[in-house]
């Protein structure tokens, strides 16, 4: 078996970049089967929704589709990049060429073996047919994708691009014969441990076991059923026995633990923020004094305590405190670290605004923390029109840019760039951050991505964030790890670094039910 260490050529550029900070380790080409595992059964799970049947067009809902489509690389539990459908990869000395060596015996769900031409076709489809997505920046830099033989893919870039290996952990490989390939894929044919079964949008997805999965002996389960209803209280389903695994709020954790549930958290955190409408702001919300007043009304400590209790981390930055891309000086300079309603009211007075004369439209998901944000803003005297919707409904309304404020959170990401990509003029799901259109910000983020070393990348990302603060595009509130409750009969399940339910070193392929 090919050993990844033997093939990975460390370039000075790559070693210097935190995004490629670790040597790929040996992966689970043939998984060690748990001798105690019981086969069969249907796992009922509710974590995130599924916004599309086309894996290349998702808007952030990655937890579900990763069980039926897989990628060349994977983000391991410790946040490092590991080979996945690729058994190993080489990176050239100048950081502009990547050679992927594909695994033997990987089959699509229609029984056909995956080859290099399939991988090439997926890269070309994302480059040519998907605009403004997560991978748009990386795709623009690809000079060529070649398949010199059935198990080798060569990708050449115009210039070094540090996040590349991390980003393609979200470029899913789908069989080109999947229905809708030329437009909108309706029935994705992937390589995952489970198959895309019957999908009822916003209701349910059934994913039956794939018997010819490339990791020998996996999966153990016969089927997974995802509950996609965004508004349900998963703790009720867990306690009633309708769910085996479900994401839960902080306020449910103690009760579930007392009832015998194992409560785990993702290895990385979600970022909580309040965005202004930056693409089509009203005359009121175009006033910097009004934006500053609203930011002054947000009690970050109380907000994060509501979200996660003592585990909540108030912060004005998109990367969690204590990590490499967070900055202590920027945190110390946060003039909104503590709420100041008196100052907020004085700012409104200076702006000539009587809040009682204005109704602010707030759009959010159906989450309790959004109500907290609404109440904090309401304390200034504004009338509030709060529309709390499911994921698809909220994104649709946000995209119309007929609103004022949007309290949201962004889940764990495989790379720092995936936080900043959302701020780009052509970034993915830009409506969550008010549809920023700022060429100067775009240039600063581009400088961070193309930096020759990690220290320079950090400096450039922080420079971009200072620009965000100066422009008052969004209010950073804090960080908290998402919690997932697991019922006592579930075995082998562990959360990962992100929401991924199938990854190189864990997930539902290794999960089984004790009966």
From TrEMBL:
Q: Which GO MF terms are attached to this record?
A: peptide transmembrane transporter activity
* Ranges in a coiled coil: none
Q: In what residue span(s) does the Solute-binding protein family domain sit?
A: 81-410
Alphabetized Pfam families for the sequence: SBP_bac_5
UniProt KW Transport keyword? yes
Write out the similarity annotation.
Belongs to the bacterial solute-binding protein 5 family.
Official protein name in the record: Peptide ABC transporter substrate-binding protein
Q: Can you name the source organism?
A: Orrella marina
Its lineage opens with: Bacteria, Pseudomonadati, Pseudomonadota, Betaproteobacteria, Burkholderiales
């Amino acid at each position: 078996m090919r050993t990844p260490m033997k093939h990975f050529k460390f370039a000075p550029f790559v070693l210097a970049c935190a995004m490629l900070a670790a040597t790929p380790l040996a992966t689970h080409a043939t998984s060690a089967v748990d001798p105690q595992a019981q086969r069969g059964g249907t796992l009922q799970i509710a974590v995130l929704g599924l916004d599309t049947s086309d894996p290349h067009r998702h808007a952030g809902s990655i937890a579900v589709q990763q069980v039926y489509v897989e990628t060349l690389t994977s983000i391991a539990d410790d946040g490092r990049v590991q080979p996945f459908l690729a058994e190993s990869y080489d990176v050239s000395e100048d950081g502009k060429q990547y050679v992927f060596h594909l695994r033997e015996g990987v089959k699509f769900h229609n029984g056909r073996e995956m080859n290099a031409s399939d991988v090439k076709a997926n890269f070309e489809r994302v480059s040519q047919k998907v605009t403004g997505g997560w991978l748009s920046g990386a795709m623009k830099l690809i000079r060529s994708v070649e398949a010199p033989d059935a198990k080798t893919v060569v990708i050449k870039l115009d210039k070094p691009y540090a996040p590349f290996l991390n980003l393609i952990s979200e470029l899913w490989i789908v069989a080109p014969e999947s229905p809708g390939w030329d437009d909108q894929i309706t029935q994705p044919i992937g390589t995952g441990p489970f198959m895309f079964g019957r999908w009822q949008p916003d209701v349910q997805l059934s994913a039956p076991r794939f018997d010819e999965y490339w990791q020998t002996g996996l999966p153990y389960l016969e089927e997974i059923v995802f509950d996609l209803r965004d508004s349900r209280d998963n703790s009720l389903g867990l306690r009633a026995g309708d769910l085996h695994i479900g994401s839960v709020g902080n306020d449910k954790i103690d009760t579930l633990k007392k009832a015998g549930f194992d409560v785990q958290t993702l290895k990385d955190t979600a970022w909580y923020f309040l965005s202004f409408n930056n693409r089509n702001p009203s005359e009121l919300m175009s006033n910097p004094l009004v934006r500053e007043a609203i930011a002054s009304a947000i009690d970050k400590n109380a907000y994060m305590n509501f979200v996660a209790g003592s585990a909540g981390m108030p912060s004005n930055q998109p990367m969690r405190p204590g990590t490499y891309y967070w900055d202590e000086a920027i945190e110390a300079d946060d003039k909104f670290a503590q709420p100041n309603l008196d100052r907020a009211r004085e700012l409104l007075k200076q702006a000539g605004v009587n809040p009682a004369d204005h109704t602010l439209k707030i759009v959010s998901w159906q989450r309790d923390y959004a109500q907290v944000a609404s109440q904090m803003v309401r304390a200034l005297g504004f009338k509030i029109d709060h529309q709390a919707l499911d994921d698809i409904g909220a994104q649709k309304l946000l995209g119309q840019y007929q609103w004022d404020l949007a309290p949201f959170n962004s889940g764990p990401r495989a790379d720092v760039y995936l936080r900043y990509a959302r701020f780009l003029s052509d970034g993915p799901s830009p409506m969550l951050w008010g549809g920023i259109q700022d060429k100067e910000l775009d240039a600063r983020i581009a400088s961070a991505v193309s930096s020759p070393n990690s220290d320079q990348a950090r400096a450039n990302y922080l420079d971009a964030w200072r620009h965000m603060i100066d422009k008052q595009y969004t209010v950073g509130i804090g960080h908290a790890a998402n919690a997932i409750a697991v019922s006592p009969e579930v075995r082998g399940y562990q959360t990962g670094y992100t929401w991924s339910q199938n990854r190189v070193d864990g997930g539902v392929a290794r999960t089984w039910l004790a009966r």
